[in-house]
Amino acid sequence: MIKRARVAVVGVGNNTSALVQGIAFYRQTGSLAGINRATIDGLGVSDIDFVAAFATSAGKVGRDLTEAIFLPPNNFPRLDCDLPRADVPVTKGLVDAAEVDRVAGALAGAEVLLYSAPSGRTETARAYAEAALRAGVAFINTTSDPVARDPMWIERFQEAGLPLLGDDLASQFGTSVVHNALLRLLKERGLTLVSSYQVNLGGTEDFRNLVENPSTKEQSKLNALSAADKVQVAPLGYLSHLGSQKVAHLNVEAQGWGETAVSLDLKLKVHDPSGAAGVNIDLLRIAASALRNGQGGYPAQATPLFKSPPGTAI
Amino acid sequence: MIKRARVAVVGVGNNTSALVQGIAFYRQTGSLAGINRATIDGLGVSDIDFVAAFATSAGKVGRDLTEAIFLPPNNFPRLDCDLPRADVPVTKGLVDAAEVDRVAGALAGAEVLLYSAPSGRTETARAYAEAALRAGVAFINTTSDPVARDPMWIERFQEAGLPLLGDDLASQFGTSVVHNALLRLLKERGLTLVSSYQVNLGGTEDFRNLVENPSTKEQSKLNALSAADKVQVAPLGYLSHLGSQKVAHLNVEAQGWGETAVSLDLKLKVHDPSGAAGVNIDLLRIAASALRNGQGGYPAQATPLFKSPPGTAI
Amino acid sequence: MIKRARVAVVGVGNNTSALVQGIAFYRQTGSLAGINRATIDGLGVSDIDFVAAFATSAGKVGRDLTEAIFLPPNNFPRLDCDLPRADVPVTKGLVDAAEVDRVAGALAGAEVLLYSAPSGRTETARAYAEAALRAGVAFINTTSDPVARDPMWIERFQEAGLPLLGDDLASQFGTSVVHNALLRLLKERGLTLVSSYQVNLGGTEDFRNLVENPSTKEQSKLNALSAADKVQVAPLGYLSHLGSQKVAHLNVEAQGWGETAVSLDLKLKVHDPSGAAGVNIDLLRIAASALRNGQGGYPAQATPLFKSPPGTAI
Amino acid sequence: MIKRARVAVVGVGNNTSALVQGIAFYRQTGSLAGINRATIDGLGVSDIDFVAAFATSAGKVGRDLTEAIFLPPNNFPRLDCDLPRADVPVTKGLVDAAEVDRVAGALAGAEVLLYSAPSGRTETARAYAEAALRAGVAFINTTSDPVARDPMWIERFQEAGLPLLGDDLASQFGTSVVHNALLRLLKERGLTLVSSYQVNLGGTEDFRNLVENPSTKEQSKLNALSAADKVQVAPLGYLSHLGSQKVAHLNVEAQGWGETAVSLDLKLKVHDPSGAAGVNIDLLRIAASALRNGQGGYPAQATPLFKSPPGTAI
To answer: Where is the Myo-inositol-1-phosphate synthase GAPDH-like domain (chains A, B, C, D) (predicted)?
Structure first.
């Protein structure tokens, strides 16, 4: 019988809620629905044990991980399963670089550190990566802050024989995935794109932050869809009543034979945190497997799961 | 400069209207919009000359091809271009097998015979194929009647050094193409399909025939989408005011991580005859090129353009 | 405190399931959501007691009403509330007119008989009306079979001092309601309708019957929407996986100032049986109130709740 | 035969383009499509002559009105009709109050002044109203700047025997009209609103201004839809490729009987300037008729055509 992977997590937001609850859900129900890979190197989706958790919100620190994930502003729904206590009290997250050793100490016994905090705090992301290095733990950066795509960091992890995965998680099934698939299909079939738009609406705290502090980087990434300025992305809309659901409206106007009109309108509704957890579960197992097999540095298998893997611009 | 392909056509319905008008449109405008392949073996999309046309409707017989394509019940719109007379009077189509020689005679000078009549008259389709054989002309069967997937016919064309293409044209961009792309994407990303439906609405005479005489074959083909009974196809709806437009409503309900709900709703609007003409233009050039290069039998290149190519069940 | 209305029901399908469960739901939760009128003449939505139930399906006869409503082919979902036994065993429904007295006997103690069987059996509907007359009970006909719009029947109930309500229940919120509202809005604002369509998809047994035996009457009623042939109704589509949900796709194409295009696309998703129960709850209270106040014949108040009230064509 | 109304216009943007072209279109085609009222006090929709036009854009000043309406950033499409020269050169618009007399002089011969500039310049709007007063001309304020809802201005026009109409044109058919109709319908039928959202996308210069300088006033007006915080309005999205089209996506989630779910999704596509012109054509005729009948002040008939008629808050 396989030894479960021992995981520490930074950030106790909606994505962590979806991950922690989902693992319990699959363990209890035996369901395989919504899972991309049943096993990775022998590890099933419920072969994960949480051994440490870090958060900055005062309200969450000190609470058991399985309670903290339901505290506001988290609004990912309660899945339909029992959730036994993890007996993992949430620890105060790192505020300055002087605390790296404290964090490294708290990682004793962990195999993988999943960095799942909000994007935009590069120094913090790197401090946790440093702690992972010191503690001999694999590191996964799900934020857009450059860690794994910085050659210096890859080199350090490689030398230490530790896996480093990142940057910027690609959702299992989100607007970009669907929009790109439609645009690609159009092209394959020889149709000519006239115009296309995308509107994204969401109700999580992360979404609200993104709306209020639109990062040029995010925007430019969205715009990367753009084929010769034919694709436009409307501003994100924060609608609290959507909760952890994300709604996207897509439109594609094209021309077929004789320049006759072809039009496509699509509405997509997903739970954003599920899209993250569905990929995190694979990353955790890839990282644990690489660590156990003594493969340091970046595991190639992780590439399709990130928007900015090593080799992309910082 | 390349010699234009000389084409005869059976059936002067909407699909032929889209083909004839589109060729004139591209010749005049130089546009490349909506075209899958600019050239095939040197032949551009407007390197086609019509040299004969057959129809059964009394009203169309005797009229120039460029007039007949606008007669009712045809309702494909008039494209925005001049349409010079073809000087090809529509000839009375074949009614019984005794007329094969008459048709063969009328094919003098043609390189390709495009069979673009309604599906469901296998004997007629084969009589035209026979005429093509006698006249030394390549044959394209766009209907679901079994010709090219009957090994005996392939053999006869192969021996005669003539290309034979078919059966059952796959539209350039239709409901099946889009529905399949979405279902495939879902699977690739590891989501679990819960249910899906498809409704098709159209306003052409062909569509009305299909609604009134639903062929089991068509239905079973639609049902081929079905992944373990999860996909349902609603009955076709004939709505005259749609004209040559086809509208499809698709819905996909799925589960992501933790069995949370993912839903997709899509509306597609296309001109059905454009979808056919956009593929016919490739088939004509593949057939002419094969003929000119002395390749008899089935050209492998045509396979993705048919729903029932050789090797599929009759 | 008001005396609860004592109700007998004919037909133990989805609509009865929604009605019986909903009454228990509102009694237990105190919720007022989804209710059109909190009270009618003092009667709240949970002031209903079932005292008899008739069905023809062998499987349902003899079972308690609160169990029979969950038997196949019923597929209305289980509402989130406790459902105490009604202690009303389902009685074998009337098969021929000779049984009217048996039914009348079984109505002892009832104030209102709700006829909620499938449409299309006029003789049966009238036999139950006859039984109601003999038992001194108010009668509600929710089917399209002509009872209340037949002047002879109204006269008989009037003379007996008993209320008679019908025919053909108008749903609380269905496709027609929404489609008509949009077409009316268009007209009010001076836009010109170009074309409109409606497609209805459903997954109940009633829906399947309607698809397989399309009644000219139903179709003509749908077509009544038609403003000078501008509105087209596509054939109903039975999609089993929809369960008791109904999905409608509506499209409206119109012209505004300068004949510029205006288009509207709408998707509606409802539980059909809820739409029926939401109106039945008002009819029951109107009928009980009229009976208690000695008002025989047709209560004017019921008119907006039927598609074919007295005065409309038979 | 009726004497055509003589109209001066301030602002030569998309709305004026739609108005000027539409009048020519209806005159030429005799069509009545898209028109709310064929005649008002004998005046048909093409019984309008333009006698003066004011604009601030240097490029437009000096050009004939019928040319200036096609200059950028205007992007309302060219209607399918001839457009004879108006022989009305666009005059430089008023910049400061000292120019009121110049404008009043230019209004000689006009009966109505239509103020159709962008909202947000109250002093300018009032200066034009002053000029109308001095010239003895009726005044229509289509902007949200308070003129007609300021009692002092109504009084001045009343004393002068001149009509004053405003403020803030209500579109003939826009998002608010449709959204309100759906919410009202829900309420009428007794359903309970759970949540609703609205997203508006547009491609005109006006739209871009609104996106870049979101006026609290506009926002609060949109929010006026809000029934107890159940309705949320997403930020406006400027998508240049939409041109003068506006696209809105609406969603309504509600509860019916037993709190079962009801959902509505709607996409609306309109030409915004047509929605304005379709109302302006009525306002012009109401104003001309009132002037000719000697009715000064606010004509009650205009009330439903404005969002902020007299009596609403400033």
So the answer is: 174-272
**Strand ranges, E, within A174-296:** 192-202, 231-233, 237-238, 245-255, 261-271
Who among A189, A263, A281 is closest to B36 (CB)? A189
Residues A229 and A83 in one domain: no
Q: Please, which pLDDT band fits residue A227 given cuts at 50, 70 and 90?
A: low
Same domain, A297 and A262: no
Residue in A with minimal Cα distance to B253: A269
Do D15 and D155 belong together in one domain?
yes
pLDDT digits (tens, 9 = 90+) for D263-312: 999 999 999 999 999 999 999 999 999 999 999 999 999 999 999 999 98
**Backbone dihedral region of A311: left (phi > 0), alpha (psi from -120 to 50 degrees) or beta?**
left
pLDDT at residue A152, as a whole number: 97
Burial code (b: 16+ CB inside 10 Å, e: under 16) for A244-283 equals bbbbbbbbbbbbbbbbbebebbbbbbbbbbbbbbbbbbbb
**Contact call for D267 and C264, based on CB within 8 A:** yes
Are residues C78 and C182 located together in one domain of the fold?
Answer: no
Residues of chain B in contact with residue C211, where contact means CB-CB under 8 angstroms, are 235
Q: Are D264 and C174 in contact (CB under 8 A)?
A: no
Contacts of C32 in chain D (CB under 8 A): 192
CB contact under 8 A, A232 and D247: no
Residues B213-228: pLDDT tens digits? 776 555 445 545 655 5
Containing domain of residue D105, as a range?
5-170+274-305
CA end-to-end span of chain A, whole Å? 41
Residue B312: inside a domain, yes or no? no
Judging contacts by C-beta atoms under 8 Å, the chain A residues touching residue D234 are: 199, 201, 237-239
Mean pLDDT, range A264-293, rounded to an integer:
98
Are residues B106 and B227 located together in one domain of the fold? Answer: no
Share of chain D above pLDDT 90, in %: 88
Q: How many CB pairs under 8 A join C and D?
A: 168
User: Is the pLDDT score of A288 beyond 90?
Assistant: yes
Are C172 and D186 in contact (CB < 8 Å)?
no
Asked if residue D77 is part of any domain, the answer here is: yes
CA distance C218 to chain B (A): 17
Report d(CA A109, CA A52) in Å as an integer. Answer: 9
d(CA C187, CA C185): 5
* Nearest CB neighbour to D195, from listed A195, A241, A265: A241
Could you tell me which chain D residue has the CA closest to the CA of A268? D265
Which residues of A are less than 8 Å from B35 in CB distance? Answer: 190, 192, 257
Structure confidence at residue C221 (pLDDT): 54
Distance CA B314, CA C120 (A): 43
Contact (CB<8Å) D191/C178:
no
User: What local confidence, expressed as pLDDT, does residue A217 receive?
Assistant: 53
Identify whether B81 is part of a domain.
yes
Nearest residue of C to residue B267, measured between CA atoms: C265
Q: Is residue B314 part of a domain?
A: no
Which of D32, D192, D277 comes nearest C34 by C-beta? D192
Put simply, the answer to whether A201 touches D230 (Cβ < 8 Å) is no
User: Residue A234: which of D201, D232, D265 has the nearest Cβ?
Assistant: D201
Pairwise CA distance, residues C302 & C295, whole Å: 13
Same-domain status, B26 and B119? yes
* Contact call for A25 and B264, based on CB within 8 A: no
CATH number of the domain that B166 lies in? 3.40.50.720
**b (16+ CB within 10 A) / e for D258-278:** bbbebebbbbbbbbbbbbbbb
Count of domains forming chain C: 2
Helices B175-188 and A175-188, axial angle in degrees (round to 10): 140
Q: Residues D116-137: what's their mean pLDDT?
A: 96
Contact across the interface for A264 and B178, Cβ inside 8 Å: yes
Residues B49-58: tens digit of each pLDDT: 999 999 999 9
Q: Is the interface score ipTM higher than 0.90?
A: yes
